[in-house]
Amino acid sequence: MMKKDARIPRRTFLRGLGAAVALPFLEAMTPRRAQALALAPEAIPNRLVFFYIPNGVHMSAWTPGKTGADFDLPSTLEPLGPLRDRLLVLTGLTQDKARPNGDGAGDHARSAASFLTGAQARKTDGADIRAGISADQIAAERVGRRTRLPSLELGCEPGLQSGNCDSGYSCAYSANISWKTASLPMAKETSPRALFERLFTGGPAGAAGAGLSERLRRRKSLLDFVQEDADRLRGRLGPTDRRKLGEYLDALREVEVRIGRAERDALVAAPPMAAPEPGVPKDYGEHIRLLCDLLALALRTDATRIATFMFANEGSNRSYRQIGVPEGHHDLSHHGGDKDKQEKIARINRFHLEEFARFLGSLRDAREGEGTVLDHAMVVLGSGLSDGNQHNHDNLPVILAGGGGGTLAGGRHIRYAQNTPLNNLYLSLLDRIDAAADTLGDSTGRLHGLFGPAHQPGRRQVRA
Question: What angle, 0 to 180 degrees and rounded to 10, lies between the N-to-C axes of helices 192-200 and 284-300?
Fold first, then answer.
């Protein structure tokens, strides 16, 4: 029998029929226990995640009145209160290439297409789409080879690739923020079941083979098939790692149960002859939460370090009846100054922030080395529009959360000069994950003020 705390590889998997369950970071994955107890933050990988909100926000309920550490949390941002010290609220940033610049109407399509690319989308609804390489895919190209999945692209509405969705702009622009090349958007995964199978069996739900079929036939959990491997591993771990492994497997089983429940509910609710998308809950909030929980597991297990998440496609007219807003979101965004409509937009914005805060909380609660997964992450939430009624692309609503491997100095509201390029933020973040780029879109340099005195841009990250 091997002694406890014996070293195990970082890429250890629990294996069973059609299953390959990656593990979170454990102390036993470091060369020696003494090193684990004094693990330097830069020895753990940094992550970069982008969340996108469609249709802009109600800015007066979003923007703090004060700058610096003494900033207030307006009503929309209140759900982030428990994470205040991990936040940077950034105002004054602009995405110029979302503006018409001579191309006329189509602000919604340009908002999404330029959000991470900083590129002016070619106005076409044909096959000749063109935007630019997005910041997440620049990162995936540089660091993606260090993980099983170079990046994850997630969302709650399908990533359409053709058709006219906004004033002569292809639906590909409105439905995607991640672009591998200037003409190739990355298809989003919207099904929690398909994502679960991709993460833990190595394939989508429809191609998981005998493993998935056998689990469904016998009504077994994925973890039932790797239980023997898990028991063997526990015998090699110390008490701290055993507890962490148990918490992780419990979280994984809980997500799997919720996906199964969503599938059963969808079948019950589906009209005759309808074929519901596998694992997509009827409830929009649960859809978000399942995808976010799976994303958190993917980050914990180092399955990927780069991800994007669209709450909905740009221009989405989804209703939010679950929070008392039966009207379509896009329709409400053209509020014309109507106070009732603005209040409902603020309610939608707060709903998204509540789900965002829940995701951040799950990263904060996941221990990793001497810190947490959130300490080793940079999570951006924003929109390509500020006020959806005016179609503004300046003073965008942007939040940066996480510790950035001990480099980000949070707990502040920073107001930048009007029309400061949003792309400057992305250049600064790419530096922190060892994926530095010279330029992005209309960038003019790096953003100042994000990092603590000991962590200014230019400091190299240790590869993990």
Answer: 10
**399 neighbors 419 (Cβ within 8 angstroms):** no
Structure tokens at 375: 């300490």
Going through 71-205 in order, the beta strands assigned E by DSSP cover: 87-94, 152-155, 164-166, 169-170, 179-181, 184-185
Euclidean distance between CA atoms 117 and 142, whole angstroms: 16
Q: CB 258: neighbour CB atoms within 10 A?
A: 17
End-to-end CA distance of the chain: 30
CA atoms of 237 and 464, how far apart (whole Å): 22
72 pLDDT band (50/70/90 cuts)? very high
DSSP state at residue 120 = P
CB burial readout 198-217, b (16+ within 10 A) else e:
bbbbbebbeebeebbeebee
C-alpha distances in Å from residue 41, one per residue of 66, 107, 130, 298, 406: 31, 41, 39, 19, 6
Distances (CA, A) of 336 to 165, 276, 333, 390: 22, 37, 8, 9
Could you tell me the maximum CA-CA distance found in the chain, to the nearest angstrom? 72
Q: What domains does the chain contain, in order, with CATH numbers?
A: 1-38+195-279 (no CATH), 46-190+284-464 (3.40.720)
Indicate the average pLDDT of the chain: 89
Going by the DSSP 8-state scheme, the letter that residue 366 receives in this structure is: S
Q: Amino acid letter at 84?
A: R
Q: How many CB atoms lie within 10 A of CB 232?
A: 11
DSSP letter for 8, please.
Answer: -
Pick from 87, 166, 177: which is nearest to 124 by CA?
166
107 and 269 in contact (C-beta within 8 Å)?
no
* Calpha distance 81→217 (Å, rounded): 45
Closest CA to 446 of 432, 421, 425: 425
From residue 338, how far is each of 323, 333, 341, 385, 448 by CA, in Å?
19, 10, 5, 19, 37
pLDDT digits 0-9 by tens, 342-388 = 999 999 999 999 999 999 999 999 999 889 999 999 999 999 999 99
What are the structure tokens assigned to 229, written together?
């491997």
φ, ψ for residue 73, nearest 5 deg: -110, 105
Q: Note the pTM of the prediction, 2 decimals.
A: 0.91
Closest CA to 173 of 213, 210, 202, 132: 132
In the block, which residue shows the tokens 């090349």?
A: 181
